Amino acid sequence: MKSILAPVDGAKSSRAVLDCALLLARGFDAHINVLHVLADPKAAIPLLGEGMSGAMIEDMIEMAEKEGLEQRKKARDFFKTVIADSNIVESDVPTESDKLTVQWVEDVGREDEVIAHHGRLSDLILVPKPVKENEIYSTLALNAALFETGRPMLLLPEEAISAFPKSIAICWNGSVEGTRAVAAALPFLKLADSLHIITADTSDTDSPVGDDLSKYLAWHGLEAKSVFFSPAGKSVGEALLQESKRLGADMMVMGGYSHSRMRELILGGVTRDVIETASLPVLMGH
After folding, report:
1. Is the Cβ–Cβ distance between 224 and 196 less than 8 Å?
2. Quick one: what percent of the chain has pLDDT higher than 90?
3. Cα gap 131→9, rounded to integer Å
4. Does 245 reside within a domain?
5. What is the number of domains present in the chain?
6. What is the spatial distance between Cα 70 and Cα 76, in angstroms, rounded to a whole number?
7. Residue at which a domain ends, from 156, 181, 197
8. Contacts of 57 (CB under 8 A, 6+ apart)
């Protein structure tokens, strides 16, 4: 991995995103693009509705612009603090230096569209877990990264990551989405000390399909232990997280939304459960 995209909106989670980006960049000797999206207040004019005077619309645009600049300042301050404390240089092109490089990128538009645009030419996209403070932004970023880029996304927990992942649990059901996640995770897997393939006994996976993945990873010089277990009355997402914790994993790999997104949003599903409750980083592919 040589290019990491770190979208920041100025919320408290921005610091955790930047710290994680720096940690991973050191592990992979990668470049970091720190992306801040400035929303275009004028784009919301058609949504304001009838009956509003021109003066009222101008006031709302002015307020939105002011709020946007405040968020930009917060994000920029986080950025300055992180690079000031690190042996890293700002550059938008590869350098001959042995120092890590980072670039501050600003773009105007809808958050999901801008993140999708920049994410397509990134090796990894970092997204903070949606919580109350940043729920709208993180949800937009998550959906854009997972569905609109074709690139892997690393979902970050609320607590900052303090060390490079060394024990990785691969949630495996043989799906296309899971296959893409495993392929994207290979750089992480090759640097890990222990790998566990965990498969829940469900109607979709009624046999220990993890053995096939274990053989595949062996061709990459990787040894992975396969575990086939029963959720024992828990939701599959909850059971996978619990099994990962039992095995001492500090990162999970899984396919995102193997079933339709609408079905999972309405009925619930593995991906949604993991997004809402994960306390460790989760690499997802779709």
Report:
1. yes
2. 68
3. 13
4. yes
5. 2
6. 10
7. 156
8. 45, 48
